[in-house]
Amino acid sequence: MYKTLSWAAVILWMGLIFYLSHQPAAASSELSSGVTEIVLRIIEKVVPNEDLDVSSIHHLIRKNAHFFIYFFLGMLVLHALRTSKDTRYQTIGLALLFCVLYAISDEIHQLFIPGRGAQVKDVLIDSAGAGVGIVGYLVLSRLINPARRT
């Protein structure tokens, strides 16, 4: 049951990534523009009268979204693999490979969406996010259960 729930979480998260990638460019930009506005309001409260480059902040938010979405995917995939396999070290490589392949397929998927395109840079950001998520999972699991070997 626990293994099934772990994989269900992975599939749901991948579904969210697919849904976000399936949005046309205008809808995707509108979503991240809303987040950008919230961030700008916070920055303006913390640092009033600061001259902000809105397009740079918007770009940074979009790229961070790539990173953090795959950060959590990396954690979820490693956790699901760990509930399914006994070989601990193999699961690390498999989790990263799984996430990188999904990032590549995600960019290919975007080739078929109006106004969207595939970018190698996004695959690299996604892969880095997954890698950091996997390391984060290993650190957290070690802190939570120090007797268990990674």
Q: How much helical structure, as a percent, in the residues?
A: over 70%
What is the domain total for the residues? 1
Mean pLDDT: 88
List the uncertain runs. none
The termini sit apart by 23 Å
* Rg, alpha carbons: 18 Å
Number of strands: 0
Domain VanZ-like: 7-140
Protein name: VanZ family protein
Keywords: Membrane, Transmembrane, Transmembrane helix
Transmembrane segments: 65-81, 124-144
Describe this structure in words.
Keywords: Membrane, Transmembrane, Transmembrane helix. This is VanZ family protein. It is globular, with a radius of gyration of 18 Å. The longest helix has 31 residues, at 54-84. The model has no long low-confidence stretch (mean pLDDT 88). Helix 3 (54-84) crosses helix 5 (120-144). The two termini are 23 Å apart. The chain has five helices and no strands. It has 150 residues and is mainly α.
